[in-house]
Write a structure and sequence with these properties.
Elements: E1 3-9, E2 18-24, E3 32-42, H1 44-51, H2 58-61, E4 74-82, E5 94-98, E6 109-113, E7 117-120, H3 127-130, H4 133-147, E8 155-159, H5 164-176, E9 179-184, H6 189-194, E10 199-202, E11 215-220, H7 227-230, E12 234-242, H8 247-259, E13 263-266, H9 274-289, E14 297-302, H10 306-314, E15 321-325
Parallel strand pairs: 8-9, 8-11, 9-10, 11-12, 12-13, 14-15
Antiparallel strand pairs: 1-2, 3-4, 3-6, 3-15, 4-5, 5-7
Length: 331
């Protein structure tokens, strides 16, 4: 049996549960393609799934231990083998995508259904850039257009504008035609401005929730604020949305859905159907090809240092994305 190097999770816990080991190399099923992974991602969501917190997330990832031994969901690489009944891809095609709850991308190879979330990479996109799309890019597009339905001239505030979601959200909101205000730390003001934000609030100097400007949308990418704090700066039909689920947000979402014009909303982008996620990826490629979407990469780590990458993400100092380089020779 052929083997590969992969990161294996021994159980729920801290970064120390991530160990590099030899694992059986997957063989593609009839409807799958085998991807040689060049780059994969490490994300805040990966850390939550590794730790098993919040606990209700274990209903999807495994009650006592992770269902999938190999973590990671984003991938970029090229096709080295195709299943008997596949028709969409040929050997050597550069591809990228997302395995959602199937995990398994922190490895040298991953088998992916050809009808899953997998697309050909644009010629001018790097493997490192492509590996990040399943996190900040697709989540931000989902929240801005599908959940909040942002339109031209809407006033949009993005809290956490220098993170993986925030850097993508600033650019996507500007592409849509919104007036964008980014909230970040002092050291990242220049970065957020360079991405196209019309206004930047340094949270070390100002509490955005105490301002006088009214916003159609507060997109709290980091979950550090709340609907209660933000509702006074929302327009009459404004929305507070966040991908970080807390019990308070859930209660506010239920309450505002019935009793208030100002809404609180949450959604788990990774739980959308593969067809929906594929459509979001396709739209992101269109934005990228138009020159309106750049990927901010903070740090890159080799596969054997995934645990170190998780520790860095947990430190809270990350800006943009963290990428895991599985095959440095092919970058």
């Amino acid at each position: 049996m052929k083997e590969m190097k992969a990161i294996v999770v021994s159980g729920y816990g801290g970064p120390e549960v991530l160990q590099i080991k030899s694992m059986p190399k997957p063989s593609p099923k009839e409807n799958e393609v085998l991807v040689k992974v060049i780059a994969t991602s490490a994300t805040t969501a990966d850390g939550m799934m590794r730790s098993g917190k919040p606990y209700f997330g274990r209903l999807m990832t495994g009650l006592r231990k992770p269902k999938h031994q190999i973590p990671g969901t984003g991938f970029a690489g090229y096709i080295v083998e195709t299943g008997l009944n596949t028709k969409k891809f040929i050997l050597g095609t550069r591809v990228f995508g997302e395995t959602t709850l199937g995990m398994s991308t922190n490895a040298e190879y991953v088998a992916v259904p050809e009808d899953g979330v997998i697309l050909p990479m644009p010629d001018n996109m790097t493997y490192a850039e492509a590996a990040t799309y399943g996190d900040g890019h697709v989540t931000s597009l989902n929240f801005l257009k599908e959940i909040a339905q942002v339109e031209p001239n809407h006033k949009v505030l993005i809290n956490g504008a220098s993170g993986s979601l925030g850097t993508a959200a600033v650019q996507i909101a500007k592409f849509v035609g919104a007036e964008v205000t980014g909230v970040c730390s002092t050291r990242n003001v220049g970065l957020v401005k360079s991405l196209g934000a019309d206004h930047v609030i340094d949270y070390n100097k100002e509490d955005f929730s105490r301002g006088h400007i009214k916003y159609d949308l507060v997109f709290d990418t980091v979950g550090k604020s709340s609907y209660a704090k933000s509702k006074n700066i929302l327009t009459e039909s404004g929305q507070y949305v966040s991908p970080v689920l807390k019990s308070s947000l859930l209660l506010q979402m239920l309450w505002t859905s019935v009793f208030a014009k100002k809404k609180a909303k949450f959604a788990a982008t990774g739980l959308r159907t593969e067809a929906e996620l594929h459509s979001l990826f396709t739209r992101l490629v269109h934005i990228f090809r138009g020159g309106h979407l750049k990927t901010v990469i903070d740090r890159q780590y080799p596969l054997e240092k995934v645990a170190e990458a998780h520790r860095y993400i947990a430190s809270g100092h990350k800006k943009g994305n963290v990428v895991i380089i599985v095959d440095p020779v092919s970058i």
